[in-house]
Amino acid sequence: LNTRLHRARKAAEEQASRDALTGLRNRRAMDAHLKTLVETQTPFGLMHVDLDYFKAVNDTFGHAAGDRVLQAAAGVLVDEMRTEDMVARVGGDEFVIVFENLVDNDRLAAIAARIVERLEEPVDFQGQDCRISGSIGYTTSKFYSVPDLDRMLSDVDLALYASKKKGRACSTMVTPDLLASASQSGQA
């Protein structure tokens, strides 16, 4: 009986930390993982991915097509992570990837470029091509003297919206200049 209860509790905990549609981790699991990385002073990269034109897919082809696109996008993101990394669906069409012990901006930029390129590949839904792209913001824990999760998540969000402003389907790294311009325009 104890073993069954233990297994049932473990299964419930696992289910509570997963997004039902994509099978990815959810925001709650991501927050816990990030907190652990900060507490153990483990360096990490943080990437926020937002799907461009997702609403148009839902409006044109319906929510089942949108679900298929989300599942395909999740597959792309999982393909780009290593076993020690985590990808989470944190909103309707938003994802965060946590790259444990990866703080090389050039490597993160290359990963972001591959993700953008792969997200532009059409997703088949009942013989129709659903087309999206992705906008990305990213940073690393080493950019901050003391990593603050709320600040980091806010900063990658600013970088993501800078990517959208540049025309979408691109990535932007958090830099002092980006933060200064956001602060001057009242975004930060």
Walkthrough of the structure:
With 188 residues, the chain is of the alpha/beta class. It has a single domain (19-181), classed as Alpha-Beta Plaits (2-Layer Sandwich). 50% of the residues lie in helices and 22% in strands. The chain has 7 helices and 8 strands; from the N terminus they run αβαβααββαβββαβα. It has helices at residues 2-16, 27-39, 54-61, 63-79, 105-119, 149-165, 176-184; strands at residues 25-26, 44-52, 86-91, 94-100, 123-125, 128-130, 133-140, 171-173. The strands form 2 sheets. A 6-stranded mixed beta sheet has the order 1-3-4-2-7-8, sandwiched between helices. A two-stranded antiparallel sheet has the order 5-6. The chain is globular, with a radius of gyration of 17 Å. The protein starts with a helix and ends with a helix. The model has no long low-confidence stretch (mean pLDDT 95).
